[in-house]
Task: structure prediction
Amino acid sequence: MNRDGQPGAAPALIAARHGVAAENVRPMLSGVANRAYRLGPDLVLRVPRTEEFVADLVKEAAVIPVARAAGVRTPALVAFDDSRTVVDVPYMVLERAPGVDLASLGGGAGGVVSDASREVGGVFRDVGRDLARLHRVTPAGAGEPARVPVEYDPDAGAPHRLVEGLLADGMLDAEAARWLGGWFGRLAERIPDGVSHVLVHGDIAPQNLLVTPGPPGPLTLTGIVDWGDAMWADPAVEFAKTPLSGVPAMLDGYREGGAADGGEYAFEARVLRYHLTWALARLRNPAPVPGERHWTAPPAARLLGILRFFASSPPAPWAALV
Result:
């Protein structure tokens, strides 16, 4: 972009390739990895900020068609150009889904979810249905799309070592460490061994969910965007970047979509272990990240989210997992 905040020459040249006049190119709210521009009313241009983020864009170009073929509501890939003739990195042009991202509603990335409103619950139920479709994609069935990594699966003892490390560092007192160790132990008893990997989006968070806002109609999911964190992983990890207050509705939709479980409360136990582990891990890197829209940017966000969730009389079976 130019110093005056307007698009530079490259977005205008790319727009022209798609029949869009330069005056109809507008910068959009962008993320950490990519700059985004609206090309007229129907297209979105995404350009990596640096070479560091090119691999994620390449991965997105491979994963988006697979996700759409599975039935996921995500904008179609219109063009992927890695020739570097117009700009010094590859770029992507996508169809533009209507609506706004969920993080822009309710005054914050996680605020709208914390309302636990019926409308927001309906959105998350639809997200769960789409994830059930996505998670039917396995490495063998998809032919392993380019550059999709396999998530490292922490062993059963990893949360306990985390707690021990926090105790040794003085971040936890001995009683809290014993209590957390017991909690992780009870969760582990419900979690089966050998969970199969599936294709996951990897960043199901409010800023990556597009909705058409009401009134007069209800909130409606129109698209799941930003596939840069896609990977082969335990499907339960998909529910770990959503505020915990939104997870029960998402799981309702997930099960309505026919996704399988693995025993009584097993899926909830896996999801909660991710939330709790990542919340505690943030204690080792408590620096705030001002300006980022992700709901976990404040260091205490996850821990407070877990506290708020369990203090608000969560639906069954969550209270049984404490």
